[in-house]
Amino acid sequence: MRRVTLTQFLIEQQRAGRVSADLRLLLEVVARAVKAISVNVSKGALAGVLGEAGTDNVQGEAQKKLDVIANEILLQANEWGGHLAGMASEEVETVHQIPFDYPKGGYLLLFDPLDGSSNIDINVSVGTIFSVLRNPEGRTDVTEDSFLQPGSEQIAAGYAVYGPSTQFVLTVGHGVHAFTLDREMGSFIYTHPFMTVPDETSEFAINASNARHWEAPVKRYIDELQQGKTGPRGRDFNMRWVASMVADVHRVLTRGGIFMYPLDEKCRAQGGKLRLMYEANPMAMLIEQAGGAATTGRERILDVVPGKLHQRVPVILGSRAEVERVTAYHLEG
Ligand code: AHG
Ligand code: MN
Ligand code: MN
């Protein structure tokens, strides 16, 4: 069987006019960084990379060693290629400027270097999430403002999931495509063309320990699912919660479902739990590209105009029919 690598896929996308030469380089570099992160993640205790870094990030969260390592790998890999105007990361307070000795390009890269860090020490899947925006025209200086564009402006988005195998999942606005890392060869092989989220599903993902904090529409929706066959939905639903957004979204992209981190009383003051620009937006673009839907409960995630880089947002995404139902419950209330 002839194997198509990520490199060949990207060159073909470039020939079809869907990605520029610079965007192709950007995606190649991100994929290369992801391979390096995958190596570190998979060595675990053997490389001494588990455990706490002993520092907090800008959001007051304790950083794990692998959060710091993954962040450094992505920053360093993307500094010198000349394709970027600037970077933003969950682990960095403000814009990461391209060093003066390197040329600047036209794109902005945002990332969550290591998603699901609470799962690192217990050997459960974690991931990397990224989003690509265009640097606004006519801007030579790159500030936080340059990044504050709605998710609908994303040029590309994707994630890597470090599970039993490492997969790289990508959209450049023409469907969702996944690649599996061949560790011996060191290359990503095109294994999942045009992933789609089935419209109907019987699987949901939510952290049910927050149930007492939920808003009425979320309580109503989850309660109806839990009533199963004898309830208003007339069938049983199954529940899954990995606590790595990447792993939960990967399941939804693979076999359908709904994933929710809604607004609740616990996270109301912050506006939600998940970060808009490097968690919610890239996942929303992927899910929409796969035929699903993604809302805050009240509006389409990709329409949210960000007010700050590390803004948080409620997230409800997955199979279209389910997301529309729970969004309708919010809008009725
Ligand atoms: P991160 O590790 O990048 O801070 O993200 C963790 C996020 C997300 O991956 C996951 O869905 C959620 O936090 C889990 O939250 P709970 O621990 O509240 O379930
Ligand atoms: Mn995260
Ligand atoms: Mn993270």
From TrEMBL:
Keywords (A to Z) from UniProt: Carbohydrate metabolism, Cytoplasm, Hydrolase, Magnesium, Metal-binding
Residues annotated for Mg(2+) 1 binding in this entry: E90, D112, L114
Transmembrane stretches, start-end: none
Ranges for domain Fructose-1-6-bisphosphatase class I N-terminal: 5-193
Catalysis performed (reactions): beta-D-fructose 1,6-bisphosphate + H2O = beta-D-fructose 6-phosphate + phosphate
One biological process term in Gene Ontology: sucrose biosynthetic process
GO cellular component: cytosol
Pathway: Carbohydrate biosynthesis
Record-linked PANTHER family: FRUCTOSE-1,6-BISPHOSPHATASE-RELATED, SEDOHEPTULOSE-1,7-BISPHOSPHATASE, CHLOROPLASTIC
Protein name: Fructose-1,6-bisphosphatase class 1
Organism the protein comes from: Parazoarcus communis SWub3 = DSM 12120
